Structure formats: C-alpha cells, structure tokens
Records
---
Amino acid sequence: MPIMQQQESPIYQTILDLPLIKGVSAARLTEIAGRYKLNFKKYAPGSVIINVGDRCECLKFVLSGSVSMAIADADETLVIQQTLTAPQVIAPDYLFGRLTEYPCSVKAESSVGIMEISKEEYRKMLASDSVFLFNYLNAVCSRSQRGVRGLLALISGSAVERIAYWISTLTQFGATDIRVTSERADLNTLLGISASAWRGAMERMRSAGIIVDVTPRSFSVTSRAALAALLPGV
C-alpha cells in the first residue's frame, strides 16, 4: 500500500488525525498498514455512500472532502442534516451491538476519499493496541453519557438546553452546517417547549451567532461545537 509507506504525504498525516486512530505513532500506523486490510474508495459529488438501513459492516473514515448525513423520521416530517468534513468517521457507534443498521443516509458533498476497515479487521486492531481500544470506548461512552444528559434536559432543562441537547444527541462531534427541518408546532410538542419559550431560545442562540436562516419550517446551526459551548459536559 504505497500511500501508507509515504509518511510525509498529506493523506498519511490525515490518517494519523482521524478519530479512533489519533494518538497512534507513525511507525505503528505503517505496521498496521502491512498487517490489516484497509480499503480506499473515491466518490464523486452527489454519490450515495450509505443508505438508511444499510448494515454497518465496516468503519468508514472520511479522508478528503465532505459528506452530508441526513436522519429523518419514517414519513420525513422531521429531517436533520449535517456535514462531516475530513478527517472524520461516519457513525462508528453502529459497528457493534444488536442494532447495526445505519439510521442515516450519507452522500458526498464534494469529491470524497473514504478509507474502510472491516468489522473483523477492526476487532483485531482493538485487541492488538490499547490506543485503538481506548479511542473507541471513549467515543461510544461519550455518546451514551450525552444521551442520558439529553433525556434529563428534556425533562427539566431550559428551552435552550432542550434544543441544544436534542440536536447534539442526533449529530456527530465535529458536525457543521446542521439543518433542522420540521413544523414548529411538532418541535414544540416533542421538546415540551411553549411557542413563546421557543422564540426566546431561538433569539438567544441567533444573537450568539449559533442559529441562522430561521424559517417557519427550518433553521440552521452553524456548528455543533458552537451549540455545545452553551452547555457544560457535551
């Protein structure tokens, strides 16, 4: 695998910065490239990378470009879109466990380079190196813990907290250009927020530059990190 033998190459450095891989030494990565099967794929803009319901049989790392991920309810009255830009990993929490079907669709926003590691190869990597194991456990546990905080926020949190925790739970770390599309009344009911409290929360986040492009049926979040900065522990 020539690209993995060129430690000075931009792609090689990108791989070292990937979530779940970051912290591994360059020498260790070169060793891994010779021991495990890593598949590299290219996608043209607009190409489908993942369909809702596809089995998660491998980890998909975004090495270059950006992808658009969409999560929707059954009749698509509620849609949350987000952009993941390299270096990123797509929905890693669905690789193991009882539910291994992707809940989202993913398309290439630009020319995209993807590196795939099969479930079996990744299992071997986890068993062979504590850095990989801790990275994956930390990622999965952080998402699980965030979900618990989100449920508590939906019960007793302020309007801003409810909106923030709800969006952060349905999006990935590092996501940008988040777009929420839904009837306002449906969101008010879902989150238990009155119309006046919703308007106040939107105005507060809009003033902070976190919420933009507000319409009767949608709004955008500039970045998940900006939203999470409003709240401790996200």
Note: The chain has a mean pLDDT of 87.
---
Amino acid sequence: MGLKREDFAVLEKFAFERRPVCVRFTATRPQGINRIAKELNFCEMLKEAQEGNAFYVTPDDWVCVGVEQMILGIKDPEPALVSGAFGGEEGLFQSASACRAMYDYLPRMQKGSVKYVVFAPVDKLSFDPDLLIITANTHQAQTVLRCINYVTGQPFVSRTTPVVACAWIYVYPVVSGELNYVITGLGLGMQALNIFPPGLFIISIPFQRIPMALSSLRELPYRPTTAPGPGGQEHRRRVNRLLDDIRKRLED
C-alpha cells in the first residue's frame, strides 16, 4: 500500500466529530474486509464508515433507485431514470426534460471498471484509497479546502446537483482528479434519509491529490477556535507595512 495509516495522522489535529473515511473502487473482491451486513444507500455508507466500520459492497448490495449501479458503470442506465420521467413526476424538476438533462452532466465510471466498493475509517485503513472523504464544520473546512490551493494556487469549486449527490461525492473527484465538496442540506436524497445535519462540508479528495493534500495540511496552521481579527484599521496597517517592505526589496 502506497499510503499508510500514519500518513493520515495529520488529520487528528482537526478533531473531526465524524471520522475521515477512505474509499476504494475495485473490480476484484476485497480480502480481509467483511461484506456490508445491512441495507444502506450509497450516501448512508459514508456515515456507516464514520462510525468505525470497514466493509465492502457488492453489486447485489445497492438498494437505491438504480443510480448507484449506473454511476459506477455496473449497469446500463434505466429508462425510467434517464428519460426524466421519475424525477419529473416526483416533482424534483419542473419537467421530465429538465430531469433528463441532469443525466447528461452526472459523472460516471467506465462500464465494467468497478464491481466492489470498499469503505474504511482512516484508523482502519488497509488499502490504497481512491478517495479521502472528510466531513467538516465551517471552521475546519476553512483550512481543509486550502490543501490544494496552498500548493498550486488553483481555486476550489463545488460541483453537485440536489439529486444524485452521491455521484459528486464519490465519482466526480476520481474521474476528474479534482477536489470537490458538497454542503449537507442541499442534497434532497440525503436530507430525506436524515443522514447529516445541514451546514457540514463533505470534502472529497481523489487519489491523484491525496499525497499533496496531506502534505499541505501538515504545513497549514490550524487553530480549534477562530480568534477575532484585529479589525479594519490594524489589518490595513499590517498589510501596508508588509507591502512597503516588499516594494523596497523589489526596488533594490
């Protein structure tokens, strides 16, 4: 395994209320991990792992309306879904046309590339993760979301839809190679299942970015509480002093 449990020790300084979770997508049956023993939707599985449980999911364990198998490339899209009829008649969209259009944007795995999905909290990690998923409050997210921007300068953005939010949590980061985040309370399915309270950040970091993210978080300072700023005048004086010093050095 390229990454080890101790590599994730930096996350302990955040004292997350909900454990960070690693996810692996694989075409072969995982060894040394138990199969899930209860019926859960894809989004509920994150909470199950946060509670300390490591497990894997087979093609027979998906219990949602069918989108899970579709976005994982396990099954072909079902006409009742991709036609937009279900979402339109359910009132999730103004029309079937709008619902149908959403499926043009949903990220998906290549067909046949995934058969099993493995979940584990980082303290029980025994595999190379495809995803690191962190559930954070606003204060914690303020630092965590900088973990890529800190090194590359690239902006962080959120891509999601109120329906099939699981596609943006699990699949989009892996197929795009980019960090993504969603805010609880915006996903209609997650809200209906009452998984998380609103206002939390679910931050998904793909394998392409995990080493950089962990390295950055070791450098970035984090304080458990937010101290008030010095105020407008003092802040401006400090910034102006810094700028004056830099300008002088650049003139030399």
Note: The chain has eleven helices and six strands.
